[in-house]
User: What shape does this take?
Amino acid sequence: MFIVPVAPRPILVVLCLNLMVNKKGFTLIELLLYVAISSFLLLVISVFLSILLQSRIKNQVIAEVDQQGVQIIQIITQAIRNADIINSPTQGVNSTSLSLNTYNVGNNPTVFSLNSGVVRMTEGAGIAVDLNNSRVAVSNLSFYNLARTDTPGLIRISFDLTYINSSGRNEYDFSRTFYASAAVRQP
Assistant: This one.
């Protein structure tokens, strides 16, 4: 066996051959294409996340208004059902406040009224209690006495509840009208 010595190649020739065989870089066109596709994907993802955030906020606003409205309706209708007499409004009259006498003399009169967008309940000589929070405002509060002669009192309640939009953003705009009726229980 003979070993044949190989003549060393010049380093410049070796480098040129390696560059021609191993193309591991990007051309300018490929690089621009990748940047454009990446930018488009980022834009689509950011628009999707923005829409998702807006709808989450809108759902929270709707839930807040619904929860506050149902709470106010429940408190007022429960007070009417537990009442003995309706002081005002009188039969066939519409009013912005409701006055009731209950079987508990210490709570007489129980009064519901509207003051600067807040529904307030006052029992007897006690202090007024706000029935809604500061994130919503009540308007057009109405109590209509539907009772007839020789029947227990029947009150129809209606009001508008609006989310207070201090930022001016569209997703914070929401309003709903609530209606309910309740009758005084006969002893």
Summary: The two ends are 124 Å apart (CA to CA). Residues 43-183 form one domain.
